[in-house]
Amino acid sequence: MERLQKFLARTGMASRRHSEEIIAQGRVRVNGKTVAVQGLKIDPFKDRIEVDGKPVGRPEKKIYIVLNKPPGYVTTVQDPRGRRKVTDLLKNIKQRVYPVGRLDYDTEGLLLLTNDGDLAYAMTHPSHEIPKTYLARVRGVPAGCKLKDLAGGVVLDDGPTAPAKVRLLGEKGDDGLLEITIHEGRNRQVRRMCEHIGHPVLALRRVSVGPLTIGGLKPGEYRILGFKEVSRLKKAAKVSDYQD
Question: Could you tell me which of 30, 35, 42 has the C-alpha nearest to residue 4?
């Protein structure tokens, strides 16, 4: 027996969080009965599971992909505006994969995609504090006191940010190049943090997430993670310790 949302995530239907939303919307039926509450336990071998009236198949083989996202792509699997999606860059990948977290349309860099709903959920769970490192080219060169403000946390419209690691890597003309490591996942957080101190971001690239780095991947390129990399990633995300 296992929880319905975990089963849906294992099949690659959606991430666990998105699976919970699908259930809450009344789109899931178990043995012909609509389910709209969380936590229902099912038997994957006996129960008939349907989403939007279509039967859900057996879980897919897990796959983990690191992509160097170029600017000009959205990190969703569907876009009502018809913009290019990061999944459009994946070729000959049979499994349905989903981005873990998001990168802004104009932001580039490391993006993890997988059909492992448990890992995706754990990677984005606030309590696990997975570090994410960005290189940001900002307008002007921030003074030391402003860098200290960033590192200590600034107050945004959705509340104060957690402490971050911030350092000035150098200057490029009149602009500054910052390395910023955060473990939160708020919308456009790095851009808003830099704007808060008066140095808006001109270009932003994510170079690492937990133990994963962008390596030598060029924009638009991707690679499938090996066993050891997946193991390190799961350890960082505390997947084995995660409780339903």
Answer: 42
Contact 85, 105 (CB under 8 A): no
Neighbouring-strand partners of residue 49 = 30
Question: Tens digit of pLDDT for each residue in 10-31?
Answer: 787 777 788 899 999 999 999 9
First and final CA of the chain: distance in angstroms? 12
Q: Angle CA(3)–CA(9)–CA(11) in degrees, nearest 5?
A: 105
Q: Where are the beta strands (DSSP E) in the chain?
A: 2-3, 28-30, 33-35, 41-42, 49-51, 54-55, 64-69, 98-99, 108-114, 132-138, 155-156, 159-160, 165-172, 175-182, 201-209, 212-213, 222-224
pLDDT tens, residue by residue, 56-71:
877 778 999 999 999 9
SS3 category, 86: helix
Residue where the block lists tokens 């999944």: 87
In contact, 104 and 114? CB cutoff 8 Å: no
Q: Which sequence positions are flagged as catalytic?
A: 104
Q: How far apart are CA 213 and CA 73, in angstroms?
A: 20
Q: What residues does 108 pair with on adjacent strands? A: 205
Q: Quickly list H helices, the chain.
A: 4-10, 16-24, 117-124, 144-152, 189-196, 227-237
* Measured distance CA(74)–CA(102) in Å, rounded: 8
Contact 116, 190 (CB under 8 A): no
Q: What is the pTM of this model?
A: 0.77
